[in-house]
Write a structure and sequence with these properties.
The complex is a heterotrimer of chains A (about 400), B (about 400) and C (about 325). Chain A has helices spanning about 1-20, 40-60, 80-90, 105-120, 155-165, 180-200, 220-230, 240-250, 270, 295-305, 310-330, 335-340, 395, and strands at about 30-35, 70-75, 95-100, 125-130, 145-150, 175-180, 205-210, 230-235, 260, 280-285, 345, 350-355, 360, 365-370, 385-390. Chain A has about 400 residues and is an alpha/beta fold. Chain A has two domains: about 1-150 and about 295-365, Rossmann fold; about 155-285 and about 365-395, 3-Layer(aba) Sandwich (Rossmann fold), CATH 3.40.50.2300. In chain A, strand 9, helix 9 (about 270) and strand 10 (about 280-285) form a beta-alpha-beta unit. Chain B has helices at about 1-25, 25-50, 60-85, 95-115, 120-135, 140-145, 170-190, 195-205, 205-210, 215-240, 250-265, 270-290, 295-310, 310-325, 330-360, 365-370, 380-405, and strands at about 150, 245. The longest helix of chain B has about 35 residues, at about 330-360. Chain B has two domains: about 15-295, ABC transporter involved in vitamin B12 uptake, BtuC (Orthogonal Bundle); about 325-405. In chain B, strands 1-2 form a two-stranded antiparallel sheet. Chain B is built from 17 helices and two strands. Chain B has about 400 residues and is mainly α. With about 325 residues, chain C is mainly α. Chain C has helices at about 1-35, 40-60, 60-85, 90-115, 140-160, 165-175, 175-180, 185-210, 220-235, 240-255, 260-270, 285, 290-300; strands spanning about 130-135, 135-140. In chain C, strands 1-2 form a two-stranded antiparallel ribbon. In chain C, strand 1 and strand 2 (about 135-140) form a beta hairpin. The longest helix of chain C has about 30 residues, at about 1-35. The radius of gyration of chain C is 21 Å and the shape is globular. The two termini of chain C are about 40 Å apart. Classes of the chains: A alpha/beta (about 400), B mainly alpha (about 400), C mainly alpha (about 325). At the B-C interface, helix 5, helix 11, helix 13 and helix 15 of B face helix 3, helix 4, helix 9 and helix 13 of C.
Chain lengths: ~400, ~400, ~325
């Protein structure tokens, strides 16, 4: 083993020497720490592919301030401790930008660890770009200069969702089903609080939590939904959990609407097909019928090349990082982070701003429903989500309790 | 002379521990810290299996619970140090493994008595039940176990011992070095005590022990407590290293890891698990950088050891050592050489086959990329190479076996 | 209320029957050879994946018959070249071997089919409703599954009680040496039984794959529960395994459906407790994943020979 270490040492010395001689600036590397294997890989793998796809496009436009963008995947198997091991590996490898999204449990551990690392290693600071861990505390009580969130948080989404539900008189009995951890609990708590404010006559007929990523057979939960006589189901489930929930619901012929945060998880549309039309609702920064031909072409290319559909907020994230780096004229983490604060950007998802006070992105959000015969279908089918309601960035925003401490 | 020989391994180990940081680079230190934890964990497992004859599938329960005890203590130290008063304000993080030991031993004390009635399959099953019970039970008490996120903490709190602020992995190394040396010494001493000898006797002939007047159940129970305590100690080390404990540390997978390391290293020899821990940890962490099938290789090594070398790697080392003392090396060398060559050929064939299959099913192969080789899985050439290597390996194997029969 | 009971019963029985299919093979193997086959759930997974892969080429029903046979062949090979070799080193070595085998099979599945769940679904016509009760459909596929499980149980019973091979197996269960002395080829019998047991697991996989998601982690999820069934039912007793599987299946399903918490229980006695408190908020639903293991530990402490076993482990 000592020999291996000697070898690695020698190789890294050579590489350093080689790099010093290179004419091109060093590539800027991003570590994606997400589940690349296991039941939740169905959301981790497309994220990796989306990042690489976008990186290729941005590299043709000069990368970030002339530095080539490289995406390196690290598999965390959705486990927070494993994520910290991978984080250390990435840092040891010289990577200073961490991207993660799947699982607020992982996000929480990464946030704590990166804060500690930056405190202990002021010359080696690391920035954490979060594209999907939307538990609200990361941009409220736990906000940090080193963390940027590129998706509307759970409270923001529930705010818009409950506004829409409040305007709909058909919904009188709501059933909540969520994963049993911080995010699922946040969704449930926000739903109950906001519905009570906006429509006190709505009755919450069920509020279940199930273990994250472990339930294989949702039939007992479906039978509970059935027997509760609910008109609508609200769920924050993602990954395998939304796939199986929807699959089980359609198998049992449950035909009430499902309002989901992640109904567009790969695999769900294929599973539910026709039975989901006009029934599966989605709240996200994206819907399937973009009028922009450039975006449509990108959708087709992405699917043709990688077999996965477009993940707009991941692209928007990388594009904003590029803009910040170009603006700062550097890929050094602190400078890029400072340039990213308050940045405005015209993205494929509309006009977005990275709010400086809490590093929470302010972006338009859409509620959409599954429809057939769409011009751009998802997962290689004809089905995709069609816009039903739109909220611009001002309507989507919520105040923050963040008191951020910035580096000098 | 014999005194020197007895102390030599300890002196050499001490020297290695002291000199290691001088010859290793940054990223290697993180791996070494994990190796230290695993050495203690695997050795504690061997107290049960190799020395006591008790196969356990729930050993990670003690490791995990000790880990949780330590991390809660770490948080208590942090809070008390902030407030300035209380017992925990004076408790150094350096001594947290002792808290882990107490946690593990306490649990073993509480549950052990009914478990230890029988060894063998019943014991294995009941420990499996315990392990899974604890693992699934963690979801029910989020304030203790932290739910999906786990519990995290900061190790840079409280009184500082030996000037170790524990900021960098390099600092943590000295912490690990101390504890791994102390733990190995303690477990070695245990094997020399009457209780240690008794456990060997109970492993070999429980009925006879009953007749002589030492109830096997009592002996097993005491060994169970000691082993649980040591596993908890390893857990305490892990809590300091990762600064986070998640329910995954209690899982069946973690228990399986202990078994893997102990078995690969060699169950019947004291230092077997040390060798096994080093090899398996290194394979797990380094291999995954070079190939996607890393875990498969670890499993295959395990199978090979169980099938062909039941006394493990340490058994092989002992074999060589005895030949050295018996001055038989020259006689046995050619056979060993042939054996090594055949194993190498077979391994290369296997690796090539696995990577080819990976290439076929996934389209890319990490190992081929890393080695810079262009592999074409559809052409017959690499497959011919596989068959050739297999034939060579097998042929050499038969030759060695024949010559072994001829001489013995 | 009635609706919940009816559907919980149906689902619980279905899950229980699936568990039984899986554990019957293990019971046979364990009773005959004393080997606790850790890799048993891995053969279950292989059955599901083979059925998926074959089904893509030859259709669902032919795959249903062919996949378990393939698994049986693999099982026989494992026994002949692996288990037999390790047998001389004792029970612990056998356990270690099957443990390593489970590991390796899991990784091989990763290697060949990737880490994302595969879309192993029954044909379209089977997804329609067999009957609709209380507004909920019960698919044809679930009905077929139950039928196959019951048929399998009947066939197994017939095989063991009414055929010559069955007689040999039953004899070898308790008097293996004597059977050998009488001139029967016991090693070949062992190989056959091991293969057959694996085929049963494979069949469970073929049926269970569409119900419980076909993915590389499926062996790890069901593996420990299968052991619980075998131990709780009693070593060497197929009827015991049947009762134990149904018990566990029904318990788990009912616990999730009837989500009563400790607070509710205390409320029955007139004690006011916080329904969301940490201890008082513990519900039957959160206990559900633990039930098999609680049963296991209790049985091993108080009645080690299981519900209906004759031999102690």
């Amino acid at each position: 083993m000592v020999k291996t270490i000697f070898n690695r040492f020698a190789v890294s010395l050579l590489l350093l020497a080689g790099a010093a001689n290179a004419a091109d600036p060093e590539p800027v590397r991003f570590a994606l720490i997400d589940p690349l294997t296991g039941p939740m890989s169905v959301v981790g793998q497309p994220a990796l592919e989306q990042l690489k796809f976008t990186a290729d496009r941005l590299n043709e436009e000069g990368g970030i301030d002339g530095h080539e963008i490289r995406i390196v995947g690290f598999d965390n198997k959705i486990n927070p401790q494993e994520s910290l091991v991978q984080l250390q590996k990435a840092i040891d490898d010289g990577i200073r930008y961490i991207i993660q999204g799947n699982g607020s449990s992982v996000g929480s551990a990464l946030l704590a660890s990166i804060n500690k690392h930056n405190q202990r290693n002021p010359e080696d600071r690391v920035v954490y770009f979060n594209y999907a861990a939307i538990e609200p505390s990361f941009t409220n009580e736990r906000c940090s200069f080193w963390h940027f969130r590129f998706d509307a948080n759970a409270d923001m989404k529930m705010n818009m969702l409950t506004d829409w539900v409040a305007g709909n008189d058909d919904f009188k009995k709501v059933f909540l089903i969520n994963q049993d951890y911080s995010f699922g609990q946040a969704v449930s708590e926000a739903a109950m609080r906001m519905l009570k404010e906006k429509r006190p006559d709505i009755e919450i007929v069920g509020n279940i939590f199930h273990p994250l990523g472990k339930v294989k057979d949702f039939s007992p939960y479906i039978s509970k939904i059935k027997s509760s006589d609910a008109d609508v189901v609200i769920t924050g489930n993602w990954g395998q959990d939304i796939n199986l929930l929807i699959k089980s619901a359609s198998e049992y012929g449950v035909d009430i609407p499902f309002l989901t945060y992640y109904g567009n998880t790969p695999g769900t549309i294929t599973q539910v097909g026709e039975k989901g039309v006009d029934r599966i609702y989605l709240i996200s920064e994206y819907h399937g019928d973009f009028n922009d031909p450039e975006i449509a072409e990108r959708q087709e290319n992405m699917y043709a090349q990688t077999g996965w559909d477009l993940y707009p907020r991941v692209s928007v994230m990388l594009e904003m990082i590029k803009k910040a780096g170009d603006k700062a004229g550097s890929v050094e983490p602190v400078q890029l982070a400072r340039a990213l604060e308050g940045l405005r950007f015209k993205s494929m998802a509309g006009d977005v701003t990275m709010r400086a006070s809490d590093h929470q992105i302010q972006m338009p959000t859409f509620i959409s429903v599954l429809k057939n015969n769409m011009s751009h279908g998802a997962e290689g089918t004809d089905f995709n989500f069609h816009e039903v309601a739109a909220f611009n960035a001002e309507q989507a925003t919520l105040p923050t309790s963040c008191r951020m401490r910035r580096p000098k | 002379m014999t005194v020197f020989r007895a102390f030599a391994p300890w002196v050499i180990s001490l020297a290695v521990l002291l000199l290691l940081p001088a010859v290793t680079s940054g990223s290697a230190v993180s791996v070494i810290n994990v190796i230290a934890i695993h050495i203690v964990f695997a050795l504690s497992y061997n107290m049960l299996l190799g020395q006591g004859g008790m196969l356990s599938f729930g050993h990670a329960a003690f490791f995990g619970l000790g880990s949780y005890a330590a991390i809660h203590a770490m948080n208590a130290i942090g809070d008390a140090a902030y407030a300035g008063t209380g017992f925990w304000a004076h408790f150094p993080v350096f001594l947290l493994p002792l808290v882990g030991f107490a946690g593990g031993a306490l649990v073993a004390l509480v549950v052990g008595w009914p478990f230890c009635r029988r060894a063998g399959t019943a014991f294995a099953m009941i420990t499996l039940g315990l392990g899974e019970l604890v693992a699934t039970g963690t979801q029910m008490f989020p304030s203790v176990f932290g739910g999906e996120t786990g519990v995290f903490s900061n190790r840079m709190v409280g009184p500082v011992w030996f000037g170790l602020e524990l900021a960098q992995p390099a600092d943590v190394y000295w912490f690990m070095a101390f504890w791994v040396f102390a733990a190995v010494l303690a477990m070695w001493a245990f094997t020399r005590t009457p209780l240690g000898r008794l456990s060997n006797a109970v492993r070999d002939n429980p009925d006879r022990m009953q007749f002589i007047g030492y109830p096997p159940r009592n002996v097993r129970f005491l060994v169970f407590i000691a082993s649980g305590g040591m596993a908890g100690l390893a857990g305490g080390m892990a809590a300091v290293n990762y600064e986070i404990v998640t329910p995954e540390s209690l899982s069946l997978l973690a228990s399986g890891l202990a078994l893997l390391m102990a078995a690969v290293g060699g169950l019947g020899i004291f230092y077997g698990p040390i060798v096994g821990a080093i090899l398996v940890t290194v394979m797990n962490s380094l291999l995954s950088d070079y190939t996607d099938a890393a875990v498969l290789y670890v499993g295959l090594v395990f199978l090979a050891v169980v099938l062909f070398a039941p006394s493990g790697l340490a058994g092989g080392i002992e074999h060589v050592r005895q030949a050295w003392h018996g001055k038989q090396v020259a006689a046995k060398a050619p056979r060993w050489l042939a054996g090594t060559l055949s194993v190498t050929a077979l391994c290369m064939a296997l690796v090539l086959a696995v990577e080819l299959v990976y290439l076929l099913s996934h389209g890319t192969d990490k190992l081929a990329d890393t080695l810079g080789m262009e592999l074409d899985a559809s052409s017959p050439l690499p497959w011919a190479a596989v068959i050739l290597l297999l034939a060579t390996g097998y042929g050499l194997w038969r030759l060695t076996a024949k010559s072994l029969e001829a001489t013995s | 209320m009635l609706e919940t009971i009816v559907f919980s019963t149906l689902n619980g029985v279905l899950y229980g029957l699936l568990l039984f299919m899986l554990s019957s093979g293990l019971t046979l193997i364990f009773s005959m050879m004393g080997v606790l086959n850790f890799a048993h759930a891995s053969f279950y997974m292989l059955g599901a994946y083979f059925a998926y892969a074959l089904g893509l080429h030859i259709g669902f029903w032919p795959a249903l018959f062919l996949a378990p046979c393939l698994v049986a062949v693999i099982g026989a090979v494992v026994e002949r070249y692996g288990l037999r070799r390790v047998h001389v080193n004792g029970h612990v070595a056998e356990l270690l071997f099957t443990f390593g085998l489970a590991y390796v099979i899991d990784e091989l599945v990763h290697l060949f089919w990737g880490s994302i769940p595969v879309s192993y679904v029954p044909p379209d016509y089977m997804q329609n409703a067999l009957f609709t009760l209380f507004g909920t459909d019960y698919s044809i596929y679930r009905g077929v599954t139950m039928m196959i499980a019951v048929f399998m149980f009947a066939a197994l019973w017939f095989l063991l009680k009414k055929t010559r091979v069955g007689m040999m197996i039953r004899a070898a269960l308790t008097h293996g040496d004597m059977v050998g002395h009488l001139g029967h080829n016991v090693p070949r019998l062992f190989m056959g039984v091991f293969g057959f047991g694996c085929a049963l697991a494979g069949l469970a996989g073929v049926i269970g794959g569409p119900l419980l998601n076909t993915e590389p982690g499926m062996a790890q999820t069901l593996g420990p529960i299968v052991f619980v069934v075998v131990v709780v039912g009693g070593m060497g007793s197929l009827i015991g395994a049947f009762y134990a599987s149904l018990l566990i299946g029904l318990l788990q399903t009912f616990f999730v459906a009837f989500d009563a918490s400790i607070a509710d229980l205390l409320g029955v006695f007139g004690v006011q407790a916080d329904p969301y408190g940490e201890v008082t908020g513990i519900t039957l639903a959160s206990l559900a994943p633990m039930t098999p293991f609680i049963l296991l530990v209790l049985i091993l402490i108080f009645r080690p020979r299981g519900l209906m076993g004759e031999l102690e482990p």
